[in-house]
Amino acid sequence: MAGIGGEATLRGRALDGARTERVVGTTADFGDVLGNLKMAFMGAAEARYGRFALLADLLYLDLENGISTPRDRLYAGGSASVRTTGAGFVAMVRPVDETAWSLDAGAGVRPWWVDTKLRLNPGLAQGRTIGSSVNWTDPVIALRGRVRLSEQVSLTAYGDVGGFGVGSNLTWQVIGSVDWQPDDWLVLRAGWRYLSFDFGNASSSLNLAISGPIIGASFRF
C-alpha cells in the first residue's frame, strides 16, 4: 500500500538548441496512487543454511499523476508518470542467534530501473513531452534483528544503506513488522516500509521516496 513523494528533474534541449530543465515535484498517498495505479508488485524470498542466508526482493510500481502548471497559461496542466523497478540481493551472516533474539549482518547490491515522463498539455505554447530512462546499481550494507515475544509472536526490523556515489548518491530503507506464526510453515506479517534514493546524472535527477504499510505472508519450505 505504497505512497510516493519526491522530485524529478528532466534535462534536455529546446528546438533552438537552448538547454532546458523541468522540475516536477509529486506527493501521492496510497489513495492517490490507487486511483492512478497501472500496476504494482512486491515480493521477497530468503534461502538459509545455518547462520548464512541470501535475501532477494523485488519492487515494481507504475503510476501516473496529474500535475498543475503555473498561472502564465503557457501550458494547460499535464501529467507525470513514474515507473520504478527495484531489486535487492543481500548475503547475510548471523553472528547472534539466541532463543529470545537474533541479529543478521550483510552486504549486497540493489539495481534500479526508473522511467519518468512529463506531459505538458497545449496552452499558449505547444504541448511537450519530456522523458528519461535511467538505471544503476547500488552497493548496500544491511542489518536485521528479530525479537521473540512469545512462541508465536515476534518483532522484525531490517535496515540498509548504500549508493555511496557508486550508483546513486544515497539510498536507504527501513522495514519493521509484527510477525505472527500460527504454524511452522506460515508467518503472517504487518508493518511499515520506507525506501528512498537520490540519483543524478547529466540527463536527470531523481529524489524519490516510497513508503507505506505492508501486510503479507511468508511461507516456509
Automatic annotation (TrEMBL):
<protein>
    <recommendedName>
        <fullName>Outer membrane protein beta-barrel domain-containing protein</fullName>
    </recommendedName>
</protein>
<dbReference type="InterPro" id="IPR011250">
    <property type="entry name" value="OMP/PagP_B-barrel"/>
</dbReference>
